[in-house]
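Deviation from plan, reported transparently: zinc ion complex.
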Amino acid sequence: MCDRGPLSILAAACYILPGLMRSFLRVSCCFGWFGVLAACGPSSGSQPAASASEQSAAAQAPAESASAAGNVIEATLESVGLDPLALDRSADPCSDFYQFACGKWIEQTPIPPDEPAWTRSFNEIRKRNEIELQRILEAAHAGHSTPGDTLQQDPGSQKIGVFYSACMDEGTVDAVGTKPIAGLLAKAAAVKDTKSLVAVTTELHALGIWPFFDVSPVQDPKDATRWIANLDQGGLGLPDRDYYLRDDEASTKLRATYLEHVQRMLVLAGLPEARAKTGALDVLKIETELAKVSKTRVERRDPKNMFNRLDRAQVEHAAPAFAWDGYFKKLGLSQLKELNVTAPKFFEGLQPVLASASPAAAQAYLEWQIVRSMARQLSKPFVDESFKLEQALTGQAENRPRWRRCVAATDGSLGDLLGQAYVSKNFAGESKKAAEDLVHAISAAFGSDLGHLAWMDEPTRAKASEKLAAMAYLIGYPEKWKTYDFEVDPKAHAKNILAARAFDLHRELAKVGKPVDREEWQMTPSTVNAYYDAQRNHMVFPAGILQPPFYDVKSSIPVNLGAVGLVVGHELTHGFDDEGSQYDAKGNLENWWAPEVGTRFKSKTTCVAEQYNGYEALPGLHLNGELTLGENIADMGGVKLAFEAYRELRKGAAEKVSAGGFNEDQQFFLAVGQAWCAKARPEYERLMVQVNPHSPPRFRVRGALANLPEFATAFSCPAGSAMLAKKTCSVW
Ligand SMILES: [Zn+2]
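Because the crystal trials were delayed, the predicted structure below was used instead.
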């Protein structure tokens, strides 16, 4: 499903979920529908413009500002970077601040038919970025194809132009039908025993198609300076193991939909109806067996669970039916002596699946894995059928137009070539400087907080400070651009995709045994996201996210800090969340905590898990406080740090600004809320609550602010307000 090969992060946390295609990767490439979580709360009816709460907010603000500085400048909300039209002034900010900040936006903003969810920040920025990427790609294509063109076009630009135009050439894609995968399907159809099943699986893995499991490089948990090979559970067609194992009505219904979908896909691949029907049942059976031995998402959040060093003999012992020597040789890993296995029990469970699958079942499973992996790159019937499953999972009404899918495919396959063109026009130096200043301000706030955290002892505090000092940040775009040494065919889109995947996989696996390049990026520059990688102890902020409403040179300090400052604080805190805190300053999985400090930390995180477990996203569907723990800790810490940094930056300012009647503290919190104005289709919300380690946006805002007493003070919320947690949780 993914246009690029596997990425190497086991220990990274990104700001929003980028995609769901490779189950263990927390930072991964995206094919389109990425996971900004949901907010679809009921909208209130239209209300008179100036309600009582608005008046009281307006009355409070200047008074507080004036007493602080004496001088208050009146400004509009727009001029500081806030959206007055998003506000629901009839809502009480102390009861439901999210509704107050975003209520009108939620009421008036439709979810586009080709989206499962929509946010005021991520999706709006992404829409602008996509249009810009489209413009770049069309210009690149035109530069290449104009007859007699004397324009000296650089090879990189030419390559992205050809790749994009081959993708856009729907007529050719439709005309060739299943031809691009016919050879692979024939091999799958010839499987007659375990040996040939393993041989075809090996061949597919070398192309970046992943039946049963997958392989990638990861940083050695004990020595973060070098790469080792990693085997991970996989082979499922639904987004998570729980989809196969839950018995609730929605899950049962979805499995029935899935079965029909697999059957129709197999028919499209050329199987007779009757064989497709039994084949679909075989696929579901095999995948259910794999699901049963797969780790849960919560289990996968603990790095100690994910790192299991096995030597070759141990891997062979776990699944002797698999011809490992031939496998490693084919993938260029012959020299491998030991490797990491994320889920040893999965590979033990794989053995009976491989050994007992009938030839017909093995064929159907491989045919299905080939088709599902490539369907989006094939003719219209495959694209439409592929979208039907996506629709069942997300509720999205329409597929994205072809140009958007082709922009995403080019970004996925030739991301650094496209990225160079993107940043040359869309990333002003001032954004880089501003982001650096923000990181420094927030890092300083964290350093100062560390100094007086009562639950920490001195030796652990010193280690934490050391980790903070060593934390690096990469802003905008990489220093070194990747190259793409494979041919692009102007008339063969699917072939280009396979070539890109195979090339990327080869590049990735060639890292095994080599030193880690700590400057390497795992997101393309136009990506609207950010991440912290615990094994490299660095934060990454692509140019794509440093755009309004996250960051605008024209916005005020409180507003920029509430929006992108929160992102920075969030990422920084990941170095110290329940996962990140298991890694030391160098990125090694090393316990640097005094035991009693670790116990106190654990009790603080339990408070957070319990609080978020209490939030109900859909009737009967509560958030998973354990799954979302790291992200919730980062949100809580992030907003606190951003607030402290903003206060520090504005300390001693000769004048305070009152915008639309809101003082600067209030503006900060409105920026936090408005960065997260969002809505989602219920199907998508259900999916996200099950698989996304981030809480839905409205709970990200409510949860983080309810734990920050400064919020209640800013809006004069009385004790007992919903926006002031009865038992406030605080970690960092
Ligand atoms: Zn995060």
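Residues 13-15, 570, 574, 631, 634 surround zinc ion (CB under 6 Å). We consider this an acceptable substitute for the interim report.
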